[in-house]
Design brief:
Radius of gyration: 21 Å
Number of strands: 13
Order of helices and strands: EEHHHEHHEHEHEEEEEHEHHHEE
Number of helices: 11
Strand order of the largest sheet: 5-4-6-7-1-8-13-12-11
Largest sheet: 9 strands, mixed
Bound molecules: coenzyme A
Structural class: alpha+beta
Length: 375
């Protein structure tokens, strides 16, 4: 008999440092002023465009984001630098992604009543990996003392739900018994803090999820009724950084496309219908009416995007608490966002309550996980 996979624990690691919109805008505007002064001649000659200032009002109105947690704010807020300043770690100490994931993993293990040695599959699913190899997941496997095997996967903002699907399928099939899926997202490392169109978007965080056979859960659990993943190629969210960088004509030059780039308006317009349709067909195939869902835990990129999706899926204005947002505090944390929303807003679920996690983003990609509470 195949096992029924269930989520029995979740954990969130939140960095200590916070950047408010006010701090972010002050730093950006100081940077823009410096840039404009340094390039005054080209700007006057019309060969270069002056940098326009950012505004707190725009950020809140366009995105709903009020602040973000980051692993280092000093480098980001330094107008002469505008990206995090992280110390070089020796190969003998944990990498930053592994350290963040470990904190979240320990919380998830404690919630599930499990130890690291009980895990035999670790998936590190995130938008970026700190190094090419060895896989960060294998390092995390070693840090928690897990057995079995581990691997990294990257489906950008949808990495968490794709990771949960992979883990759930393996637990169901028996190729793994108990899985840890971690999503350490150091988005501050790939955000272009010098671009006012997107400098407010991302924050850092790590999330963790334990997936094991439902009949072995030590307490209440969320049965994974089913998962659905879909992808459709698009260049509207893209980052061209990669291992071939030094081989190209301008090598390691400071190029805009080496950081996160997006055509925000197009993303908004194309991804909202794709995600709404995806959720509705997933529910339809499961014979679940949208009104039977107690909660949607959506990807946390933009408040209006979530409002649109909620309205489309439910066919009405979502009631307070039906699709909780955490993006006002965390900003967009890539794949981790929907898991933070789930981890922080699922304690009130009672026997038989249904909810759906959905993440979406670059690729394009979208993943949904239908959950039913038991115990
Ligand atoms: N401060 C002040 N004004 C700004 C600004 C800032 N920081 N950034 C942009 N503006 C200006 C623009 O220059 C533009 O001016 P114009 O109308 O004179 O040309 C105007 O504000 C509107 O800019 P636009 O980029 O069209 O804003 P938007 O309403 O589309 O909101 C996003 C921008 C990114 C919040 C929105 O497009 C979005 O949420 N997109 C997709 C979701 C996402 O973030 N995905 C991330 C990966 S999953």
């Amino acid at each position: 008999m195949p096992h029924i996979p269930a989520i029995t624990g979740t954990g969130v690691f939140t960095p200590e440092q916070v950047i408010t919109n006010a701090e972010l805008v002050t730093a950006f505007n100081a940077y823009a002023e410096r840039y404009n002064a340094e390039h005054a001649d080209e700007i006057a000659a019309g060969t270069l465009e002056a940098k326009a200032p950012s505004s707190e009002e725009f950020i809140v109105k366009a995105s709903g984001i009020e602040q973000r947690y980051v692993v280092d704010k000093s480098g980001i807020l330094d107008p002469t630098r505008m990206y995090p300043a992280l110390r070089q770690r020796s190969d003998d100490e944990p990498s930053l992604m592994a350290e963040m994931a470990l904190d979240a993993a320990q919380k998830a293990l404690a919630m599930a009543g499990r130890k690291g040695e009980d895990i035999d599959l670790v998936i590190c699913a995130a938008s970026n990996m700190e190094r090419a190899y060895p896989a960060v997941a294998v390092e995390i496997q070693s840090l928690i003392g897990a057995g079995g095997f581990a691997f990294d996967m990257n489906v950008a903002c949808s990495s968490a739900t794709f990771g949960i699907q992979a883990a759930a399928d393996m637990v169901r099939a028996g190729s793994a018994h108990r899985a840890l899926v971690v999503n350490p997202e150091i988005c501050s490392g790939h955000l272009e803090w010098r671009d006012r169109d997107c400098h407010f978007i991302f924050g850092d965080v790590a999330t963790a999820t334990i997936i094991e056979p439902a009949d072995e859960a030590k307490g209440g659990y969320f049965e994974i009724r089913s998962t659905r993943c879909a992808t459709e190629f698009s260049n509207n969210i893209r980052n061209n950084n990669g291992f071939l960088r030094r081989s190209r004509p301008d090598g390691v030059a400071d190029r805009r496309d080496m950081q996160f780039m997006q055509n925000g308006r197009k993303v908004f317009k194309e991804v909202v219908p794709m995600v709404s349709q995806h959720i509705m067909s997933h529910l339809g195939e499961e014979h679940v009416e949208p009104d039977q869902l107690k909660r949607l835990w959506l990807h946390q990129a933009n408040k209006s995007m979530n409002d649109f999706i909620g309205r489309k899926v439910l066919g009405r204005e979502p009631a307070p608490g039906e699709q909780p947002n955490i993006l006002q505090d965390y900003a967009n944390t890539s794949s981790a966002g929907s898991i933070i929303a789930f981890a922080k807003n699922s304690e009130d679920f009672a026997e038989g309550d249904l909810g759906l996690i959905c993440s979406f983003g670059a690729g394009y990609s979208v993943g949904s996980v239908l959950l039913e509470r038991h115990g």
